[in-house]
Design goal:
75 residues, coiled coil, mainly alpha
Length: 75
Amino acid sequence: MEELLTKIHNVTDKLKSLKTLPSSESNKAMINAQEQELDSLISEFDSVMEAKQKSGLKYYRANLDLNGGNPHGTQ
């Protein structure tokens, strides 16, 4: 997860830097490529977060079942 966040940060920094360069076809192509990479990384991050959320909900539900419906484990 930390590695993914680092990649997102690095690509974002590179994209910001590219957007300060003069407009040219070459720069537009590089910006487009970086935007696509950033979109891909963000999608991957969203998938990881969704999986973690689902896992957390399953854990919470399992604890509810084990503790008679009380999430804190006290009756």
